[in-house]
Amino acid sequence: MLDMMDRKSFRVGLLAVFCVLAVALAVWQYRFVPLSLPKEPETAGQEARWYVLADDGLDNLTIPDVRMPVFDSRTLAERRALGLPTQLPAIAEVHTDHVAYLTFDDGPDERNTPIILDILKTYGVPATFYVTGKMSEKHPEVLKRIFAEHHAIGNHSYDHVYKNLYPNPQDFLAEMEKTDEIIYGILGVRPFILRAPGGSWGMFTPEYGPLLVANGYVEHDWNVSSQDAAGGELTAAELVANVDAQTDRVKNAIILMHSTAGKDSTAAALPAVIELLVKKGFTFGVVTPMTPHP
Ligand SMILES: [Zn+2]
Fold first, then answer.
1. How far, in Å, is the centroid of ligand 1 from the Cα of 265?
2. Beta carbons of 102 and 125 less than 8 angstroms apart
3. Average pLDDT value over all residues in the chain
4. Ligand 1 centroid, distance to 244 Cα (angstroms)
5. From CA 107, how far away is CA 113, in angstroms rounded?
6. Is the Cβ–Cβ distance between 241 and 87 less than 8 Å?
7. H-helix or E-strand containing 179?
8. How close is the Cα of 63 to the center of ligand 1, in Å?
9. 228-267 pLDDT tens trace
10. Coil/strand/helix, residue 218
């Protein structure tokens, strides 16, 4: 009898120990299971985007990522018709040391722009293309490729004719809006950034700035020129040497190049330009309204 009781107690004891161990195991697992589960993607429930799309109030333009382009989902005409703001709020410039902004003006063309895009893809480097309305109408597929490959796009007037742009700021603004409408028609978004043909230095009178600000445009000139638009085509080596000579003492480099017909040496120089900048400690960004002015 006693023997039976002992055996029963032993079994109950064993069961109790087993239960305690099982509970301990469950608690231990509960503690560690959440850590071993894959994380929910951060973009879950919303469309993953590689660019910032301005909201109607223009109050979400503060994402400090130098590789992320910024676009508007509405044209200026739409904003005016709907009573939405057209002027950007005061947004802080993103100051990051040693960022190079490769910029290509006057395209897109069907020859050099695709070659430049291939090189940028090989190196995994983003760039900014300041396009004209006229060239975008001619080569919409190339414009779509620039956008699809995550580069920034800026407005560079309809057809780059100074006598139509610089008599007065209203004419300049009208041409920028016309170009925006063309870009919007092809991509479904429009840029905030623009580059004045010839650069704003020496072209803009004091009235241009306030009109552009009121309409949400941010103009960027450059502080490094490859001189690929200088008279007489320079060799690739000369273009690289020009970039090299101007990037020793700059904090950030906004580099002027062109992606049009006849700029074969620009495309030929690009791999060496990228490798040179990497060697000098630069990373690469795209121009946005938050990009510091040179
Ligand atoms: Zn130009």
1. 17
2. yes
3. 88
4. 22
5. 7
6. no
7. helix 169-187
8. 29
9. 988 778 999 999 999 999 999 999 999 999 999 888 999 9
10. strand
